[in-house]
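Chapter review: from sequence to fold.
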Amino acid sequence: MNELLEENAPPIAELTKGQRRVLGTLLEKAYTTPEAYPLTVKSLTAGCNQKSNRHPMTDYSEDDVLEVLDQLRALGLVAVVHTESGRTERYRHYMRKRFTLTEPQLAVLTELLLRGRQSVGDLRARASRMVPIESLDDLREALRGLTAQNYLQASGPLERRGVEVDHNFYLAAENKKLASDGSAEREVEHSETSRGLPSSAPLRQPTSATRPSERDDPQVVPTALRELQTDHGELRGRIDALEVEIRRLKGIVDDLVRDLRG
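The token string follows.
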């Protein structure tokens, strides 16, 4: 039945908030805690509601998650896995069956589904805890592929410093389209035209006597703030990756201790 659904199902262009959170959590846990994956409903609910790497915060019940899982199963994005004992159902994602994505692209989508809009620098740091992304150029290559498939939107050219990106699976009613960085320039041009200046006329540059200092320039503070946010995101991503590695090593040590005691 799943194979039939995958062949005949229409392309997926929209996902609800609940579907994005549940699917994103399944994707993330498959990468970061493979020893616990596929997930039970209880662990999946906890993952959806965790305080780190999530925006916005949620308070889903297990019934809420089960309802969303049924929706995702109907879309061919999730499947049930029965354990050997048969007592507990577990769930896994089928993103690789429904989408043609590289591993970096899948990691990028995972972070965007879980956190939404973010800078390219933040995104690289966070996605790297799941899949190695060696440089911003490597990330931009993944982003271009997602954009070509209409899975990603950006606030401007990907090469521009401070550009922000987001997934493109929002419902139309959510109105989550990113504005282009060029909008401010168009507003300035329109303002000058309305005062009688031709739109092609060059703007008069201030002289040294009238040029405002950097600290008085309203553009300097937002730019500096974005740079600080990017640096903070990269550090946070590295800390997250270290925490994942520590948990993995702890699991290995625990196994060794059990073997020695046995």
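Two observations follow directly from the output. The longest strand covers residues 78-82. Confidence is low (pLDDT under 50) at residues 1-5, 182-221.
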